Amino acid sequence: MTDIARDIHGVRTLLCCAEGAKLETERDANAFVSAAWEHQANLVAIPVARLTEDFFRLETRIAGETIQKFVNYSLRLAIVGDISAHTDRSRSTRDFVYEANRGRSIWFVDDIDALTRKLSALRS
């Protein structure tokens, strides 16, 4: 399967496939940013399967540095999939996800339908 771009409620979104190189370091985010540019996307949806455990261990700073890279390049980021194992294990991760989901740039959603609903709500 390959990454695909589509418009969701007026937002050009790159839907990354579950297979492929994992985002293990902040530098790995460059591939996702480049793919977004290639597809002229404003939002990148990365499946949880493409992330390592370290992404959810906030002390590694991988999540923060990755998110900062997306913000610096004016790209939205959605992490798609069940992350309950990570949020159940760590209060700081749960708080981080909660705060991210309150904003308009970085979201953690269960599936593409949830992402579609969030984008729809922004248009309202």
Question: What does this 3D model show about the protein?
Answer:
With 124 residues, the chain is an alpha/beta fold. The chain has a single domain (4-115), classed as Transcription Regulator spoIIAA. Helices cover 41% and strands 19% of the residues. The chain contains five helices and five strands. It has helices at 29-38, 62-72, 84-89, 91-102, 112-123, and strands spanning 4-8, 11-15, 43-47, 76-80, 106-109. A five-stranded mixed β-sheet has the order 1-2-3-4-5, sandwiched between helices. Strand 2 (11-15), helix 1 and strand 3 (43-47) form a beta-alpha-beta unit. The longest helix is centred in the C-terminal third of the chain and has 12 residues, at 91-102. The protein is globular. The model has no long low-confidence stretch (mean pLDDT 95).
